[in-house]
Each structure stands twice: as C-alpha cells, then as structure tokens.
Amino acid sequence: MNISLRPIDETNREAVLALSVREDQPFVASNKRSLEQFAETEAKAPGVARPFAIYADGRLVGFCMFAVDPEDEDEDDRYYLWRFMIDKAEQGKGYGQAALAEIIRYFRALGADRLLLSTKPENERGLHVYHKAGFRETGCIDCGEAVLRLWLEKKSKKEREKFLWYDVDVKGRLQIREKNGYGVSIAIAGEEQETYCAGSGRCGQDFPVNPDMLFQAASVSKPLFALTLLRYADKGLIDLDADISGVVPDFVKKGPMTFAALLSHTAGYNLHGFPGYRADHEPLSLEDVLNGKGRTPKLRRIRPYGKQYMYSGGGITLAELAFTRITGATLRYAFQKEVAEPLGLKRTGYFQPLDEALVSNAAFGGRLAYREDPAHGYHYYPERAAAGLWTTPTELTKVGLALGKCYREGGLLKKETAQRMLTPVMDDYGLCIWNLRGDIGYHGGWNEGFLTEWMFSLRRDLSVASMVNRSTEYMDESQLDIALRLFQTKEAEMSEGSDTTGWEVYCGKYEQLIEDLRLDEVYMKDGGLYASINGADGPVVSRLYPIGDKTFGRVGGLAKITFGDDCLTIDGTTCRKL
C-alpha cells in the first residue's frame, strides 16, 4: 500500500469536499469547515495551517490538516494533527493506520520531537487507531476533546509523562501516578470549557479519573448552601437579619442569632470542622450532631456574638437546621430545585449518604477503601451544608460563572443579594465565601481523603475548580497554588489586547516596604508589563496584567498593584518610585 499526502488545489478540492464520514461519527468536522478554517488561519498566520489530501495507491481516500508553528512558546502547541478523516467508503481497509504512519513520518522530517491531536472521548474507532500508533492521553480535555500526544524522540518515562497545562506540571506537582496512586480533576470555565484529569479515582485501582467523576467538595458545600438559602431570601421566605433564636431554641438559649451571623462565621460558635463517618454508619440527624452524639463535641458559643470572625462548621450546621425548620425542605431537595435545576447541574447534590447508583463513577477518598469499606471508600457526612456536597469540577465552575454574573448584573440571585454575599463582613469573608483581592470569590475544602479549591472572577466570566482524592498538607498547599496559577494565567490571557499606552510611566525601581512582597523593579518586555521581586530564594519575575484603572494583578500572587504619580500601592501600602 502506497500512501501519499498531496496539497489541496483546484485538481482535487471538489473531490476532497465530497468526502465524508459515517453518520455515527458526528464528532469529525466536515472537510468544508476544515478548509474554511485553513483560509481563516492562512490570513492571520501564513503557513501554520497545512491541509493535505490522502491518497492510497493513487486513489483519494481521506483528508488531513496540520498546524505547524515551531516558534510557539508552548512546546506542546508546535506540531498538531488538526484534522484527520478517512472517507466512509474507505474505512476498515487499513488506510487510517497507514495514513497515520505517513503523517508521523512527515512530522519527523520537520524535526518535531512530539505530535499532538485532540478528539472526542467517544470517538472509540479513532482512539483505537491513535493508541495503536502510540498516542496517549495527556489528561487535558479542551472544548470537549481529549488531547493526545505521541513522542517522536526517545524520552525517559518521567519526560514522557510530563505535560504542562498552561505551563503548570499538574501531575508532577501533585505527585500523581497513572494507575495505582491518587487522582486529580480540574476544570477551567470562561470563553471555553477545559478540563484536565490524571491519575486514579481510587487509590490502588486502575480507575482513571474522568471529567464526570464525583468528588466530595468538603467545605465548598458551605457557599452552595448559602446560595440555596439566598434564593429563598430573594423570594422573601427567609430574612437574613431576623432573629432566628426562636426557631432553634434547643441550641440558642439567648438571642439574637441571625443567618447573616452564622453564614459569616461571626456568631462565635465552636466546631471548626467534621471528620465524617464510615459510609455504612447509621444515619444521624442534625440535632444528633449538634448535641454531641456523634464524633464531635456539643455545639457551644465560645466567643461573643458578632465581635470576631471564627470559622465554624458547627455554626453552618445550626444554620442548616434553622433553614430546614423554616422551609420544611431538606437541603438536598432545596438545592436541587433552587440551584441544580436552574443551572443545569446533573451530578451535583447533597447526596448523604451517596446514592448507590452514583457510586460507580465516584472517587474514593485517600485510603479509606483499605481501612474501612472496600466498596464505599468515602465518609458519610450528616452535616450536609458544612461538608456534604458531591460534585465535579466542571459543575462547580458553572456555579462560579453564575455567581460572578449575579454579582455584576443579577441572575440566579438578585444583584444586591449576590453583592452582599460577596462583600466581606470580617477578615475578607462574606456569607460563606472569601473575597480575595476585591474581585475573586473563593472557597477551599478538606474532607477525609478529599481536597477542593474553587474560585471565580467577579469582573468577568472565569472560574477554576480543582479536586483531588488525597488530603495532606502538601497536597492542600500544592493544589491551591496550582488552582491560583491556572486562574491567573487564564485571567492574564483574557486581558491580552488591552491598551498598553502609557504603561511605560510605571516602569522603574521602587521602595521595598512590604516584607513578603519586595517588589524591586517594574519594566516592559515584548509589549507586556513585568515586575522583578526579591524573593527569599532570589529574584522572581512576575507578569503583571490589568484588572482595573491603573490597577494590575500578578501571576503567582494575590497582590493588587495600583500605580499613582511616581508611586505604586500594594494592598494599601504605598511605595515611592526611586
């Protein structure tokens, strides 16, 4: 069989356009659309898009198109198999595998060290061909398509497994092993939806993480409870500032007590968090938990009401009890009707205990399956509002986008309600949510065997969620750093194209008055603004990007930098230009 790749010209264009795949292969773009994209790309970046007709023994059998940009900063974006199809009448004859081998030879001749492609995860026939040729999933799913990579040069196992997603080595940083370790699932939502999955959802098993796999959200349960409660407040069924001590007199002997105080952690209660119970533990009521009949002490007020911020899962559980008594609805039902259904969430809910039908695609936490129940490797949390949510990163980012929109213009919540939720009461904490930098909503979570990081922009459509099935201090710190870096890299990317006129005036050296952020110099490079920072381990360069009038964020930290006349202000501290 002689396979050849021939350029598209007037002699074969119509014949290429006439090629098509089978009706059960809707995930393959039409050749008409591919050639349109070639024309669009050629107008902007000549030579990058390269379409070819595939011939077998001189007969047209398929079509392919490459993206070639050896100068791209991201090494994984330099050589891409953009389109690949074999005509429906020619499938099953070995042309696909043979054509792919010829395509690989083409890229080797270019000097490429790797080749990437993407396809729908349900494209089983295509995946079989790609796997047979040596392509392997990277873990990234971009716009619904799984990204695969083939190494064209010999690499060590460590090098082969390394994949930088937005310049972040997620697997390396989280120490993720492919089959028998722990796993991670991440989603970025903005102009497009992207996901990244790696490792195993169940330690010790070949159970690959997928975008629909359920994880426990831990304390991210709290802001979604607050969102549910605030939906009732918008309808006039709940008053955030009314004294509810009469609703829960068995736990509040002396008022006042309000939902606002409980949700902002200023009510003065103990019980920071909850350890959970074996999955087969007998059901516990909220009253049982608050009376100390489980694994935690009895709820007590240990600080003055409304005088200070003190994080309390117990206070949130008391708020859940008051909510259920006032509304007559369980939190699971209320969330489903008020949040999940309006937002189209299919796999998010306060499933406590987890429905047996959902167990088949649920992650197990840490090594709980070894220590407790092999068939149910997770804990049961009767404290649903505080720790009982199951969800996926993709669906968490949908909630983040919705809350950001509510803050800006209203939607699922009234604008004023969302702004109250996200306005700090004390210590940058609003109603079950932190406000970072003044324009980022954030909450993290830690359950036994599960960690979650969730953040969203209040300025634009952008949200990031990351979930892992291992809970250690190292994983907690690493996952937060990864989520923040992904968020800021995407935020900076979305700011590209901003008017840079006048940025030169910000350049220069500045006083170093802030101990944990010793910004030394600001300078321009390749049309962008950068800061040199004297860190503990030497100078660090951070990219600055606009987030407001004369105000910038920086990749790698949460500082808000505002430039003035011969000075800059970082989080309230002003440093003069030298």
Can you offer a commentary on this structure?
With 578 residues, the chain is α+β, with helices and mostly antiparallel strands. It has 3 domains: 160 residues, Aminopeptidase, CATH 3.40.630.30; 280 residues, 3-Layer(aba) Sandwich (Beta-lactamase); 74 residues. 28% of the residues lie in helices and 26% in strands. The chain contains 16 helices and 27 strands. The strands form 5 sheets. A 13-stranded mixed beta sheet has the order 1-2-3-4-5-7-6-11-10-19-18-17-16, sandwiched between helices. An 8-stranded antiparallel beta sheet has the order 20-21-22-23-24-25-26-27, with helices on one face. It is globular. It starts with a strand and ends with a strand.
Keywords:
8-stranded antiparallel β-sheet, 13-stranded mixed β-sheet, single chain, Aminopeptidase, globular, 3 domains, 27 strands, 28% helix, 16 helices, Beta-lactamase, 578 residues, alpha+beta
Concise synopsis of the structure shown:
This protein is an alpha+beta fold and about 575 residues long. Helix content is about 30%, strand content about 25%.
- Could you describe the largest sheet, including whether it forms a barrel? 13 strands, mixed
User: How many discrete domains?
Assistant: 3
Tell me the β content.
Answer: 25-35%
- The low-pLDDT segments are none
Number of helices: 16
**Would you tell me which CATH topology of the largest domain applies?**
Beta-lactamase
What is the terminal-to-terminal distance? 72 Å
Structural class, from helix and strand content?
A: alpha+beta
Q: What's the helical proportion of residues? A: 25-40%
Q: Calculate the mean pLDDT score and round it.
A: 93
| Biggest sheet: strand arrangement | 1-2-3-4-5-7-6-11-10-19-18-17-16
Count of individual beta strands:
27
The CATH class of the largest domain, by name, is Alpha Beta
Rounded to the nearest angstrom, the radius of gyration is 27 Å
What shape does the CA trace take? Answer: globular
CATH H level, superfamily name of the largest domain: DD-peptidase/beta-lactamase superfamily
